[in-house]
Design a protein that fits this description.
The chain contains eleven helices and 22 strands. It has an eight-stranded antiparallel β-barrel, surrounded by four helices. A four-stranded parallel sheet has the order 4-3-5-6, covered by helices on one side. Helix 4 runs antiparallel to helix 5 and helix 7 runs antiparallel to helix 8. The protein has three domains: 156 residues, Rossmann fold; 64 residues; 168 residues, Lipocalin, CATH 2.40.128.20. Strand 18 and strand 19 form a beta hairpin. By secondary structure, the protein is an alpha+beta fold. The longest helix has 20 residues. The chain is globular and about 75 Å long. 27% of the residues lie in helices and 23% in strands. It comes from Arabis alpina (Alpine rock-cress). One of its GO terms (biological process) is xanthophyll cycle. This is VDE lipocalin domain-containing protein.
Length: 524
Amino acid sequence: MAISLKAPSLPGTRECSSLFLNGFVTRRPVNFNRKSRPSFDATSFSVQRFGLRARTIVRSALETAKSENPEASVRLVSLVGKGEVSPLKSTSWLEVMLHTATRLKWVDEEYEMLVFDDEILQSNDQRVTNLKQELNQTDILVVVAVSNPESVKWIQTNSKSINNIICFESSPDLMNRLGGADFGSGNKDKQATEVVKTVGDAWERRNSDDIRFCLLVIINAYIRPVPVLQNLRSKGFSTLSCMVKNCGPQILNCLLDPNCRKALQCLNQCSPVDQVCSYRCIASYESPHFEAFSLCVLQKHNCLGLDAKIPEKPYVPPMTTFRGKELCHETAEDLFVGWLGDLDWSWRVVAGQNPAYDQFPCQYQLFYRGKGKSSFWYEPVFQVRTLEGKLVCRRRRYSVKRGKVPATFRFSVLDNGVVSNEFWTIVDVSDDLSWGLFHYNGAARVAGQSYTGAVLVTPDGSYPVEKERERLQCALEKCGIKEWELFAVDNCSCENPPLGIPQGSRLHSVISIKEQDSVHRIEM
């Protein structure tokens, strides 16, 4: 029986819920009726984050015959239930999958996914003929929220030649197929089991990044290698040897420290590609010993042998003018500085796109110029609800350098022993500084994680007024982001945040902020 996904809530606060991935319900532990579906314990596929129990999660497609032509195009077809609604702010599944097709292109232009709703299956015109032709040459069929009996029968009849079929939220009569073999009762294929486990965990996270990731995992395992997924594979004994040889004292200190030990145990339960899980572990249990451990094992010696690069896509054009004047570097920096000086912060985050980094409660942004002539700093302050239920404040410090083009910047931060580098773009800021949209592409190279995101900011943390909606949607479109992808930030209970900037810091260079009659006004 299909178990519907609940409406999404903020990561870290949602209840544990089940996911219907045809043939599996991913809940720990999992136990199925042996008459109809296979049974396995999902906990048996846990991953040792730091290589202490090295194991491959998804075998590389380099081992398959199809890897002989890594430049070949990858063709996917997605069939979606007519009018079916997703848990992503009640957006239709058709719109979600169409957007996913666009986002696949950011990974590789050769990934082509055609999306149809199942109403087309009941027609008798040329469209059905064309669809059948597409299915005959597709690499992966993705079925989402299809339960109409006639559609189910049509798919069963016309998908027999497709080697890879994955079904979500659909009729239990539809069977997953991976590598040409039906994945159902009696199937003991280890690779297929691991793929389904990885895909199921990602789907359950309920965000657009992980919907795309589900498809990339299948491409990587059965079609051809996906470079951005190279870190799915463990490095083996060399990892442990590197750690012991170079970082013995740091390992010992970490294991003797309760918080550091909890951080490692927590990370051990996370998939290497689950940035939401990983960063929440780090933010929950950060300590000097954990920072020293990560600095040695990852940053200095890269014992995991990981590598990640800042994504080149999506390319987001920066704003070029402000109040009718061409934007220069000084004004762009002032837009970041924002309300600092008139308020105790530059901006407050209203919503963000990245589920790992943009969803924390009570986010304050502090942008300011340092004492040096060209120094510029960014310090975010945010709350974290730890895994033990405590509410704590965290603060980071980024060095900011100007990009080649005004309104573009390069950020760098040492976060718990690991360096992250990011490319930020000021996409748009309203003339009265009532709201702004900032986009970033980033990577923690030695942690093997690359990411993108965007934050919508205002002076008080409330959503922009309705009259700004059209301009805001235009700005989001430049980022390739739909409004339904944004996570709302909880800006309640934000008492006594640890704000303040270093003495001697400088603020605005071109823009001055004055307060008149209790109304904030900006003057150039």
